[in-house]
Give the backbone structure.
Amino acid sequence: MPRLYVVDRGAGQCADRICNLSATAYAAASERCGCVEPLAAPLDSGGAIGIRSVLLTRDGRVPDLMAMAVHRVVMAPFDSVGGALLPLAGLAADGVNVAEDAPFLTHANSAAAAEAMLVEGEADAIFGWIPAVAEGRPNPPGGTVARLEAAGLSKSSLQVVWTSGLLRYGPHTVRSDLDPEAKRRLTVFLTNLRSAAPDIYDLLEPRHSGGFAVAGPRDYVLAAAIVHLISARGHKQ
């Protein structure tokens, strides 16, 4: 394993080493200094490379996004990435600007509380998330749909009204000015690591067991939008 490899979830220590960052930490560091570059990001065992936000309705109550204004829509607290930040950023990216305090929106105290509101009929739709795979592959089970099914709702009663773009899992990054050949070698090291040295892979990536795939800046456009959303909210307070 390269000696300069350090697992680090923060953005402040990436000036001279490889870092394992969350998607939003990478986006913040990239915006702040433009000095970090993603090499690879992990996959889940089922092939998921990240998450997408979804607007789920029950029994067709909310037919489309424009109908949200006359229905009860619930989402998780603002600090929930999949349940609030990604939906708001993803809607804006699609040209649908929804204010955090829109009158039709209710922010539950937790994702579980938001799900309970839909199950109990106190909401007509919910913003949640689903695992996301590469284009052309079926989405694996999981996320809010699976949690609602476990709470007693039938899959046939749930409809996806809207799906966001991809928020990819956090990348392993290097300095942008690192020698290109070093970047190439490190990318090969990461993408082969799970098969070549599974024990080391588990140490570097304990949360996602499917190996690494090549990543690039364009994979984190929505992560950057989330950072901007958080920043704008901070300026208003």
